[in-house]
């Protein structure tokens, strides 16, 4: 018999040092021995977090967002729907409406209670607890959403979700406080999976919704939002707390084997190496569990079990692969268990019919409604990843290539020819396993991807030269050369890509170590420079050291494996195509930019249709508006000059200007202090700077910018103080600022956590940014350009704010406007909102009002300033961002 989980847990505690026997030892053991260890599954978790629940939650949130957007912008549509409903309601008999409302209100409570009683009788109380938790959460979310609609939602949303109640009863609720919890409860307890209960429940919910709608106690949009909220909260709850684990156990497995005619006595779970599930998901395969089963008579069996929870794993990755890759056959939806079983069985039979070595499929069966099993003959051996390098001979690789040739002769693609899919028995015969993710009647693209994958798999173990030679011996040079366009990371399996990235990191580390060693050796050989060395000597020493570093880097460079494989193939077929094939339909960065563009467009449109912005257009002087736009555009040219001033290397100026314009788009979807710096660092790396130098240049630019910002604020504050308080000594402004800084410094040094954080930040700064600054200081022209660009950019913003103020017929002195802008910009950069939204507007408006500007003029001027410097540049920023992305400049 199979011992239970409690017995296994107790045995593991009593005998912690005794390891379970290997598969081969168990397969060859005498089943009559009393000391034979019989193993069930490892202890299963009581609950699992299903990706399908997360997907449904995201879909529900998206639907709610779309509905609110429709209610915001399609005002005429919402009003027309409400008029049609009112017109139809007026024709319905009032007695029928009252009866339907009473009956549905009673039934909507009785039906869930009846289902709860039925589940409790069947001892399924956990599902009831899940339903109650979902109902409570749905009630709380409904109250919060209703409060948001009533207090803070835009007026069109309120009109779509709220209406006057009949008989002067005030206003209706935006969300039904009892219907959303009922829907959440019914969904969480699984009533939707029971056809009879599902029909009754949704009939009752529909009747109740129609009753309150016809009676005038709600709106159509409110009904839809209520249903979506209940549905979304239910699946969010199930994903958060997990669903009951329904995986098939070892007992069910043995019962299924007996059902198809086998007489098993032991079943040992074959533990997969850590991370294998991720690699299988990367290849598009369905993750499985494998067992080694010993029979009363005859050879052992390999049994593969697939259940619904495993089948859902990797769904998001497979969906992304389908979206990102072109020409790749991907299933359009999650297949059923029976479809998965039929797919794997078909591939197993087709592979053997093609003449390839593959485990023979003996039987298939269902293990209840939530799992299926496939029974294979057991082949003793080790996979390629388990073999030492000296056992991977040329003959073994040629045998593997012959199996692939057999598959390709019948147009069968394996789709994951990595080290876990090649099984080598004791005689050196290679078997192809993990066929479940393959394709029947595959196209040329998939077949060439298999060749590229196996080339890389062998290349990682024996090197490019031997891997290519073995492939050419079996396939011929033409077939190997045709796979070169597919020899790119995106066409390889997830596990292979991970290995290649790890090798790339190791190569980079070796290059850095080589440069550091060469620099250290050069400095020791050169000795220390004289204390009073002139500038020419220092510059020559710096150039010589830089040349040593470049030569060391060039000598330490190592080609990656894919490049080595291409070189070996080109030695055999010099005319082979090497241009990578375009199989990537969409890149992650493109998807991110599209999502960011959607958010940017939403914010831009919502701001431009805002009544306050409409007042700006109506009351502003258009001459000064144009002047403000000119100064806003000038700031991008000044920003480019400032950035290049801290980059000793040569970088194209106009392309840098385009990158600064692109930063106006990035600032809308990221905090102002983060988005622009990240974009500039990425841009400089794409222009040929090493990552460390690019980050150091941007850091040096920001450090000088911070210093100049503080200096300008103190200077203009001093001048402003002399203007507005002539009787007050002007030095008091500076003294007040210095005292404030001193108090802040004392607080930082007194608090250990703050002191530690500042010290770590400063140490990191001096490790990278300060050496870059010293390099810039040795070039006066660059330093003047960097500082001058910062001052010019600041003055451009100040003049833009001044023009915005003059557009509404008001003037202030330039020092005053500079103080207002510098203070507002500092607070806006510190705010964790995209582009400092909210913080900058409030600070600038308050600053202008503090210096005597009427509130209406201050608000209008600030809105015009933000329109010119933040909102209107979004569209050209998006175009610039897209252009640089397409040119691979960022």
From TrEMBL:
SUPFAM superfamilies on file: Protein kinase-like (PK-like)
Subcellular location, principal: membrane
Disordered as annotated region, ranges: 1-31
Lineage: Bacteria, Bacillati, Actinomycetota, Actinomycetes, Kitasatosporales
Transmembrane annotation, as ranges: 54-75, 95-116, 199-217, 223-242, 591-610, 622-647, 694-714, 734-754, 783-805, 857-881
Membrane topology: Multi-pass membrane protein
Keyword terms: Cell membrane, Membrane, Transmembrane, Transmembrane helix
Designated name of the protein: Flippase-like domain-containing protein
Bias kind Basic and acidic residues: ranges: 1-13
Localization: Cell membrane
